[in-house]
Amino acid sequence: MNQVFEMPFSKIYPLLIAKAQRKGRTRQEVDAVTAWLTGYTPQNLEEFLRSDLTYGDFFRQAPKPNPQSIRVTGKICGVRVETIADPLMRQIRILDKLVDDLAKGKALERLIG
After folding, report:
1. pLDDT at 113 (0 to 100)
2. What is the DSSP secondary-structure string of the chain?
3. Which of 44, 61, 89, 108 has the least CB density, counted as fewest CB within 10 Å?
4. Could you report the per-residue pLDDT of 22-77, keeping only the tens digit for each?
5. What gap in Å lies between CA 109 and CA 85, rounded to an integer?
């Protein structure tokens, strides 16, 4: 099993937020792309930050995975997200890609519109 699947959500999500904030984006924008991808509410995300939920379970238990996420393409960490075979890892990398695109200045509406 991949180590990232077992990492606490409460350790990884703040890193995604910090990445976006370093480039002038907001936590609300990160929450918005996360909600779009998974179906969680910002309130759910806040609760998960205070829990022992693993990052893998965060994605496995997503209430409403967005079928439009298959349209997210491009490279993250040198890997094309559309070529990732493992569905769980692909969802993780799609969130990474969305946050990366936010940090690069892409409009929120363009990413999830």
Report:
1. 80
2. --HHHHSBHHHHHHHHHHHHHHTT--HHHHHHHHHHHH---HHHHHHHHTS--BHHHHHHT-SS--GGGGG--SEETTEEGGG--SHHHHHHHHHHHHHHHHHTT--HHHHH-
3. 61
4. 999 999 999 999 999 999 999 999 999 999 999 999 999 999 999 999 999 999 98
5. 28
pTM of the model: 0.94
Those residues whose C-beta lies under 8 Å from the C-beta of residue 21, and which sit 6 or more positions away, are: 27
Nearest alpha carbon to residue 62 among 40, 29, 47, 41 = 40
Q: For the range 48-51, what are the long-range contacts, defined as Cβ-Cβ under 8 Å and sequence gap of 24 or more?
A: 48/9, 48/10, 48/13, 49/9, 49/10, 49/13, 49/14, 50/10, 51/9, 51/10
